[in-house]
């Protein structure tokens, strides 16, 4: 079916208006029901598939994310019709979520050097809160005494159980194992500022599990990888956290967290005498886990995490990213193939955004591994806090 622009554009505008309406608070929706045209709520998913293909092909990631979040039938329709479109959207380069000192936040397309025309749904109480995490397209804030997981594109909020540990008062960093909207159980790990306690939660449980006070965990960056929790400190130390579940037969043995120090000769040799590192974990598009150490003098070292068949962990030094480029940040790190975005990203390059809180100026730098060159990018200095944001496409399977 062929459709002219004059026919297709009004249909697309009406659909986007419907999505805007669905995003309104329930109370607001009820007040608008009397004046809302009936066709605005019609089941447009029953339109001919070739027409829907044309419509969905016009969607940007923000609109597509809102579409598939409406209900299961719309999600299944999008999944059935547009596999190629999903692949295109899921391969989008990460956006930069910029937050100003005045609580204003917006998405920035670093590849094109321009803001993204997408309205974020962040309730007022969270606009001036420090961001604790940015995982799987979700923002995580600490609203004492609990964590709030927010989808800024749809406005969906999940509140986790409150903390009940006296050493856990100022949450600094939070990571999750998967997208909480996928339906499967996901895990959450939180570290507390200036505290030697780490907290772990499996979604669905009502109580957090806390570690013993044995480490300055707030100096570590953690990652969920292949049913493991790995951490790297500012001193370049690597450890593995193990959550040991309580036995149903023995109620006297509660769930606990143990740790295992991982020694690596190559890590000690390369980073010897290099204090106060910034460490990051990032998985490349091949599923390999990399650990990146950023030195204060503006140099980067990259290591690949190797897990053998016996479960033992070792590291190897990486001198070539194989055409990948890495996006590093306090709250989220990701990777893409530079060849997928010719003219926008340089291969074997690290893009790092520094976040120091809403009262300090953030920074941005670009490091090329081939030439060992470092440069600052002035386009991204107009922010106090920045995080890489990758929208989650919550598609269900039929």
Task: Provide structural commentary.
It is a single chain. The protein is an alpha+beta fold and 398 residues long. It folds into two domains: 5-89, no CATH class; 91-389, Neuraminidase. Helices cover 18% and strands 33% of the residues. It is built from eight helices and 25 strands. The chain has helices spanning 5-22, 26-32, 49-56, 61-68, 72-81, 83-90, 124-127, 265-271, and strands at 95-99, 105-109, 114-115, 131-135, 138-143, 146-150, 157-159, 171-176, 187-192, 198-202, 209-210, 221-225, 228-232, 238-244, 256-262, 278-283, 289-294, 300-307, 313-318, 324-329, 334-337, 349-354, 363-368, 373-376, 385-389. Strands 21-20-22-23-24 form a five-stranded mixed β-sheet, with no helix packed on it. Strand 1 and strand 2 (105-109) form a beta hairpin. The longest helix has 18 residues, at 5-22. It is globular, with a radius of gyration of 23 Å.
